[in-house]
C-alpha cells in the first residue's frame, strides 16, 4: 500500500507524526485530499478538522486544526498551525465552556456594535465548535 508521512506542528511542538494513505483538510477554497505522491503544494487552511487515514492501524485519526498552512513535498504532508488537538486529547467540558463564553461575548459585542471584537469572538466560537465536533471521533 502506498503511503506518505504526515506531521502537524504547532508552537507548542509536534502534535501528530504518522504514516498515512490519505489526508483530508479544509483549505480556504474548499476541501483538499492528499494521497501518496501528491504534487508539491502549499495551501492555507481554515479552522476545521483534518482527517488522516493511517496505514499502520487502518483507521482514521481526527485532529482539530485552527487554521495554518498545509505543505506537500516529497511524500511528506506538513501542517503548521497556531494550535491543533487530536480528538483523544480534547477536553470536551473545556470546549463547551469556551463555546459558551464566545457566544456570550458575541451577544454583548453585537449589542454594543463592536464589530472587530465581535469577529474575534466569532473566531473563538468557531474554534470551540471545531474542537467539540472533532472530539466525537475519539478512539
TrEMBL record:
One Pfam family here: ATP-synt_DE
Protein topology in the membrane: Peripheral membrane protein
GO CC terms: endomembrane system; plasma membrane; proton-transporting ATP synthase complex
Molecular function per GO: ATP binding; proton-transporting ATP synthase activity, rotational mechanism
Stretches assigned to the ATP synthase epsilon subunit C-terminal domain: 89-136
Localization annotation: Cell membrane; Endomembrane system
Sorted UniProt keywords: ATP synthesis, Cell membrane, CF(1), Coiled coil, Hydrogen ion transport, Ion transport, Membrane, Transport
Domain ATP synthase F1 complex delta/epsilon subunit N-terminal as annotated: residue spans: 4-84
CDD domains cross-referenced by the UniProt entry: F1-ATPase_delta
Stretches assigned to coiled coil: 92-119
Function comment: Produces ATP from ADP in the presence of a proton gradient across the membrane.
Cited NCBIfam families: ATP_synt_epsi, PRK00571.1-3
Subunit description: F-type ATPases have 2 components, CF(1) - the catalytic core - and CF(0) - the membrane proton channel. CF(1) has five subunits: alpha(3), beta(3), gamma(1), delta(1), epsilon(1). CF(0) has three main subunits: a, b and c.
Family membership: Belongs to the ATPase epsilon chain family.
Protein name: ATP synthase epsilon chain
Species assigned in the record: Pisciglobus halotolerans
